[in-house]
Amino acid sequence: MGYSLGVDLGTTFAAAAISRDDQVEMVTLGNRSVVMPTVVALREDGTVLTGEAAVRRAASNPDRAATGFKRRLGDPTPLLLGGERYTAVELLSIVLRDVLGRVTSTEGTPPDRVVLTHPANWGPFRRGLFEEVPALAGLSDIVTITEPEAAALHYAASRELADGQVVAVYDLGGGTFDVTVLRKRSGGIDILGVPEGIERLGGIDFDEAVLNHVDNSSNGALRELDTRDPRVMVALARLRQDCVLAKESLSTDTETVVPVFLPGRHFEVPITRAEFENLVRAQVESTVGALSRTLRSAQVGAAELSAVLLVGGSSRIPLVARMVSEELGRPTVVDTHPKYAVALGAASHLGPATAVSASPRSTRATPEPTPAAVSLASGAAAAGPSAGGAAAAGPVPAPVAPFPAPSPLPDGAEYPAAEPTPADAPARAAAVEPMAGPPAPAPPAAPPPGPDPAPWAQDDRGAYPADAAPPGTEVAYPPESPTGPFDLPAEPPPPSERPKRVRRAILLAALAAGVLVIATAVAVRDTSHGSGGETSSVQAGPSAVRTANPPAPQAPSDGPPPSVVVTATIPVGQQPGRVAITPDGGRAYVTNFGSDTVTVLGSKLGAETVRVSRQPSVVAITPNGKFAYVTGNGSADVSVLDTAQRAVVAAVPVGQRPSGLAVTPDGRHVYVAVQAAATVAVIDTATNTVSATVHASEPAAVAMSPDGRYAYVTNFGVGIGPGNVSVIDTASNTVTATIPTGVTPGSIASSPDGTHVYVTNFSSDTVTVIDTASNAVTSTVQVGQNPANLAVSPDSQHVFVTNQNDDTLSVLDAGSDTVATTVPIGPQPNGVAVAPDGHSGYVTNTGAGTVTAFKIG
């Protein structure tokens, strides 16, 4: 008897359910639980482990295990397992292959149909990458639906819903949050409005909050640890597990303790439910706001809801139900097993009585399910996991890198049918237990390139310049943070594994068919630069021009392009991120993400290190050179470093995952992009306290105008494809304009003459040039692969851009908006800074743990 299989590849757990004869039930995947941890580990003998076996391996060898990698889907930085590089696509396919093997072993036959679920806020780029997961696991003709849709199907099947009743599905899982509004109709369910989600928000972040509580309660005991010590790595892995257990116990108990076993030091940290709720309240508030926005998009009032269905493991937190009920005044329903709801709904998706469609008012299309039989290749027909808990993972395929934005091919060039196999593919295949059956089929040849794109295009969430990238393209985590909290160290892939532009063009052709057209408008700054704060909203784009005081056009620089000559390579800490030079040019400060330090380089290239907050990302120096402000992506604070004492003198709480920051020209304030809180925090440097906050969608980096009147903030654009730049009036701390950019805008810098702002688009391989007089995009410059950061020369004539994936430094002529020269620089270049005299600079090399010093001719 055939059956359908629904699989929920969650961030922290994977679950599976089968549907047969109108009966839906879970399949046990773990040894002690129905679900299995989404963890992959690599043993010393090359065997791949998944699930509980991988969790045990991670406790003793955290450097050989990967967790939370679903959130890294689309991140170009590979993860390392025992020195082997893996992408999130590979790791997800290994887990899926193990799920298929276990289910097939239990049922005796492979499934007839497979339904996979994904977050509702994924755009076409990440959905395109996700489609590679079943292909690598040996599946074809699978069906995908969003996680809230699957949960709603389960809810409708298990409860009597009258036709016309409306429910909201609030899905707070281990790594993502999604919300969808649905209406029951005869024979199916309608999706109302536009489902919304919050990327990088879930149980993992709540675990991190508990870990930070432990650190703060022990006077920074964790920050003092040397994370290079294997004993420390094991201790932190165990502590993370204990933080998870403490968080879960607080859903049923009012207090608990977290045991801390560090090398040479053992103690306990108590935590109450009230303390935990205070730690996560801001994040839960953001989910409630997303729920309200989704109701507005669906044109549904709170009174029209029959209930709010809470699914996902993190929805068990009592604060969630309480805040949702208080906000909407409606009852909440927590599923008996919230971790199972998505898998159960997915299994029943293709049944005759459950059809999901978009309502006429919906602006989001839902693909019609096609009940075609699923072809199971090598992986699905396996007999199940091997002895010792090892997944029958099969030969690990060649790394799959994201290919979000193609470069046009030269005239007469053609697309090859497939990319050459990486040089180390045979070795990788031999290192993992093979599965029976033939290998997965090779991808089909791509069609020839189509006509040039229109100057503007749109997708289901917004408008953007069409030359920036394919619609909806996004990357999970740009280079503001090379890795996640206590994550595996990353290093650059070898040339044979780096993204190929022809593969990007192939993916673009495949994704183009899924583009949805929705009109949108973006507000831009009003026609005056006055301080009154009044704005007028017009359609943004190259044609939007402010009439008052337009700057004179910049002329191309005279003479040949500047020469860049490498003068020294300086070892610093692990995974150097950003670099800033003091106003007098005498010292440079380098953040070392992997070693929780800042390296101070002197004029004679001497170096000393200062320990700061966890996972330091960006550093900015006050105009008088007395203080350096450092964001700690693994903490909720900004460290204040006294440059004379070489010591941290204050820690300013701003919210989880602060990233970019900039100091105002008068030195009175620091503007900090706080990713998890979706805000820009304004620090008063006189008191080192937050004096104001400004809402931002997904803030990444900040730049100040030379006169200090405006702060420019890049927003990743997660869930809405290309990102944008928010323009904040610093007098009123309000957003006065929003300017579209390319995909995954990261670094941003203002020219010293104040006429232009430059933005790197990490996934578009471009730099966006914005005219500050009109707040309009005047040019999009193609640079190298994955531009990470940029700096403008003091004379505003040139822009220096690090290209992380081809190890080069592009030098742009600011007058002509063209690349004047490209220079090989170092492994995985990241941060860049130019000295105040314009004659020298520094580039951090994340992949090598070094800084390249260079002279400018």
What does this structure look like?
- This protein is of the alpha+beta class and 857 residues long.
- Helices cover 18% and strands 33% of the residues.
- The protein is built from 11 helices and 51 strands.
- Strands 1, 2, 3, 4, 10 and 12 form a 6-stranded mixed β-sheet that branches. A 6-stranded mixed β-sheet has the order 19-18-13-14-15-20, with helices on both faces. It has a 4-stranded antiparallel β-sheet with strand order 24-51-50-49, with no helix packed on it.
- A hairpin with a 3-residue loop joins strand 1 (4-9) and strand 2.
- The protein is globular and about 75 Å long.
- The relative contact order is 0.10.
- Residues 352-555 have low confidence and may be disordered.
List keywords for this structure.
18% helix, 51 strands, 857 residues, single chain, six-stranded mixed β-sheet
**N→C terminal distance:** 75 Å
How many beta strands in the DSSP annotation? Answer: 51
**Helix coverage percent of residues?**
10-25%
Quote the average pLDDT: 75
Structural class category: alpha+beta
Radius of gyration: 26 Å
User: Tell me, what's the shape?
Assistant: globular
Strand percentage lies at: 25-35%
Low-confidence segments: 352-555
Number of helices in the DSSP assignment: 11
Major sheet attributes: 6 strands, mixed
